[in-house]
Amino acid sequence: MREVLAQQIIDSCLEMVRLGLNQGASGNASVRFEEGMLITPTGIEYSQMTPEQIVYVDGSGHFEEGKKPSSEWQFHLACYKSRQDCNAVVHNHAINSTTLAILEKPIPAIHYMIAASGCKTIPLVPYATFGSQELSDSVAKGITTSKALLLAHHGSIAIGENLNKAMWLSQEVETLADMYIKALSTGLDIKILDDEEMDKVIEKFKTYGLKVEE
């Protein structure tokens, strides 16, 4: 099972590169495993990565001797501790999502697909140095309300019941970010869907959509 999950992590990372969501060795991915998680190692390009290099980190943050997990391992672990429905985490530096993160702009309810996050917006968490406890604490707080977050001046995170769902949501956030940037560029007023409508759509998403299998 471990080797299968490790290969799925690598395949997801390669898919992020193919889709233009990441470049080189940027970003990272993980899955819940045993009492902790399996996560990409630090500083290795995805095209060179092997299942044996995927790192196991336990629930206390201890990892295997001779292996070094992604520098962002703390916020991955925070996601698993914050949400029992989270079994996979993907993080990337996709252009549009990261552009909004640089502008410190969350994505409001410009489109009903925002509800795929389980929230009425794609929230923004404050900037903190990558790999820091401060960033992990912000992610732990933000992820309790939304399955997707923008990290100020950094990138985005998406979680899911499995890697396929986390990847799907990550792509959807990037599409929504693209829409929002284009809408902002017109200089026109942007109508935001009201809370009542978003509540309806969020409820629908509990039984419809996101039917992506592992």
Automatic annotation (TrEMBL):
Q: Which residues form the Class II aldolase/adducin N-terminal domain?
A: 7-181
Q: Give the enzyme's EC designation.
A: 4.1.2.17
Q: Has keyword Lyase?
A: yes
Extract the InterPro entries matched here. Aldolase_class_II_sugar_metab, Aldolase_II/adducin_N, Aldolase_II/adducin_N_sf
- Molecular function in Gene Ontology: L-fuculose-phosphate aldolase activity
Q: Which Pfam families match?
A: Aldolase_II
What is the uppermost EC class here?
A: lyase
Has the keyword Metal-binding been applied to this entry? yes
Q: Coiled-coil ranges per the record?
A: none
Alphabetically sorted, this entry's keywords are: Lyase, Metal-binding
Output the Gene3D superfamilies linked to this UniProt entry: Class II aldolase/adducin N-terminal domain
Which superkingdom is the protein from?
Bacteria
PANTHER family found in the cross-reference section: 3-OXO-TETRONATE 4-PHOSPHATE DECARBOXYLASE-RELATED (PTHR22789:SF0), FUCULOSE PHOSPHATE ALDOLASE (PTHR22789)
Q: What is this protein called?
A: L-fuculose phosphate aldolase
